[in-house]
Amino acid sequence: GKGQHFLYLNSSAQKEGNRARIITTKHFPASFGVCRVRFWFWMFASRQTGVLKVYTAEEYGMDILMWSSSRNEENKW
């Protein structure tokens, strides 16, 4: 897309360890072993927000951690 969509997750009612998932039935074959995801995020609160983690699900259902951030420093994207 062209940045026309967003996902909002209200973390105020969440507990440590909870997950939000974006799931698609479309498969993205990594024919050259490369898969790219680009996104922007805003993670700011008066209390610690925890860690934002991005996983991929491999063929047999195992989640593989690809990226994480605990940035809660600035009120910006």
UniProtKB/TrEMBL annotation:
Residues 3-77 form the MAM domain. One of its GO terms (cellular component) is membrane. InterPro entries: ConA-like_dom_sf, MAM_dom. Signal peptide: none annotated. Coiled coil: none annotated. It holds the Pfam family MAM. Gene3D superfamilies: 2.60.120.200. This is MALR1 protein. The gene is Malrd1_1.
